[in-house]
Amino acid sequence: MVNYKEYIESNTEIMLGKPVVKGTRITVALVLQRLAEGASVEELMEAYPALTPTSVMAVLAYASDKRPFSALRFSRV
């Protein structure tokens, strides 16, 4: 498992304090949105060359840690 703390940071002087991939202005929310829209990791890295497979996994680990599964709401399909 990736230690997201090595890859994700939040600083009030960068993107108004939104969590971003360290050393970039790429927000966690943007990466999650693109993944939810069906983008592959390869497509993300092509669109945002600063991303790596590990940094994308760190975004997912961050989201998982900040949004426990017990808090998720699932709708019926």
Task: Describe it.
By secondary structure, the chain is mainly alpha-helical. It has a domain at 1-8 and 25-66. Helix content is 39%, strand content 5%. It has a two-stranded antiparallel ribbon. The longest helix has 14 residues, at 53-66. The protein is globular.
Topology record:
Layout: E1 8-9, E2 20-21, H1 28-36, H2 41-47, H3 53-66
Antiparallel strand pairs: 1-2
Pfam family, one: DUF433
Protein name: DUF433 domain-containing protein
Organism: Chitinophaga fulva
Short description:
This is DUF433 domain-containing protein. By secondary structure, this protein is mostly helical. Helix content is 39%, strand content 5%.
Throw out a few tags for this protein.
77 residues; mainly alpha; two-stranded antiparallel ribbon; 3 helices; 2 strands; globular
| Helical segment count | 3
Uncertain residue segments: none
- Spatial separation of the terminal alpha carbons: 30 Å
What Rg is obtained from the alpha carbons, in whole angstroms? 13 Å
Q: What is the ordering of alpha helices and beta strands? A: EEHHH
Mean pLDDT: 89
Question: Which strand-content bin applies to the residues?
Answer: 5-15%
Task: Give me the side-by-side strand order of the main sheet.
Answer: 1-2
